[in-house]
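Hey everyone, long-time lurker, first post.

I ran two proteins through the pipeline my lab uses and got sequence/structure pairs for each. Pasting them in order. The first:
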Amino acid sequence: MAAAAYPAGHPECLRLKDDLRNLKHKVDCGVDLLITQLFFDNRIYYDFIDKARAVNINCPVIPGIMPVLNARSIRRTIYLCGASIPAPLLQLVDKYEHDATSMEKAGIEYASMQVDDLLTSGVQGIHLYTMNKHRQIIEIVKNVGLVK
């Protein structure tokens, strides 16, 4: 059974410590796989893994990656889920906000770099939030060498 995990903490939980305690309870109740909410900075995921392991959450934690393909929609998504956006990605969003083709290309490249870093670090899998954008997801998977 899989459940959600929030690397930056659930937006309705005020303290990450409490969120980790709730997550540990899920695992203790039979969850054997966690899939994270989207994040755009892998350091957030790596830090979360360290904290999860420190409270004996030892099941696989699959990182959730959402490519930034549209400036307006990503701003709305960030607002709704409480994720942060690192400065390099924010600069890309600002730069290509009114150029959809370039925004999509930059978003695919950024997500590809994220996925490549995660795979190089030995994660047990990746969850790509497709948002019905299969062509772009296929490009990311090809970029990181998972398919030809």
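...and the second, right after it:
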Amino acid sequence: MDTPNSQSTVRIALDVMSGDLGPEAAVEAARLALAAHDDLYLTLVGQPHVVDPACADLIKSFAGRVDTAAASEVVTMDELPSKALRGKKDSSIRVAINRVKSGDADAAVSAGNTGAVMATARFVLKTLPGIDRPAILSEFPSIRGHTHVLDLGANAECSAQQLYQFAVMGAVVARAVNGIERPSIALLNIGEEEMKGNEIVREAAQLLSASALNYVGFAEGNDVFMGDIDVIVADGFTGNVAMKSSEGAAKLIGQLMREEFTRSWFAKCCAAAAAPVLKAFARRIDPGLYNGASFVGLNGTVVKSHGSADAPAFANAIRIAMIEARKDVPRRISDLLAETLASEG
């Protein structure tokens, strides 16, 4: 079975009104994704006076694989999620997610207001049976490739049981997206020793230790980038701080390198000589390679692109949505949760 609806193709509802770079970036991302994936069908969602002209060339170039869906409203990046949910029922975010609910799309992708996308997705799609709260998951570059980290901001406070559920969801995504048969799982903590951390983290450790999951213990912040762990679990407050700190550190490194390589004539010559190495380094840590945060735990597939993502990065979010839809990640989460609970019983 290739997709939830047993078809060989994957249809994505793409919110083109979202993101800091405007509809142009979303439409170009659609072009890149369609060119790269022959089995991809896209529904571009937005205000008709914007979407129809922007998509005219796409519809001609990829005949039969692109259509549009009208949405009369747009959620701004600084709008309160509650206001967007109650007051903009015909927003591009809502229309895209509604298509997943109705079965007209296998997944939705948006670069819009994270809180509004999550609130709308949770309201429309609901959470899976046995899942208390959805979580935000993304990949981080690491010394061994990448690490899946969740939650990245959806739930500032979590119970031990919810952290356990996050571990199940992270294991499914790592297996489905990256083919890791038995992903290693750790809890983010202030130390690796058993007595470290607060009561909730220690209780979650006991739940995971007693489960059938491949739980390997606590992980510290540096393990996100330097360890050999496949999935690292945290509450949304801790996970979001870790994510924003890593983004800031990456920008700092880039800025300092630019300053040093332009400080003098000799430094500029060194920069020219090191250009191939610097380009290779930039490719390895390019945020676009990891763009696309999964909203896991929902009864449907929703992927959030970074608001400032350019077209290639946005296209990567579409690629992730395709994989998760084809692998039917929501069903797999339900199955693994039932399996782990049964093994404990």
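Reply from user beta_strand_b:
Welcome! Quick read of the second one: Residues 183 and 345 are 22 Å apart (CA to CA). Residues 1-6 have pLDDT under 50 and may be disordered.
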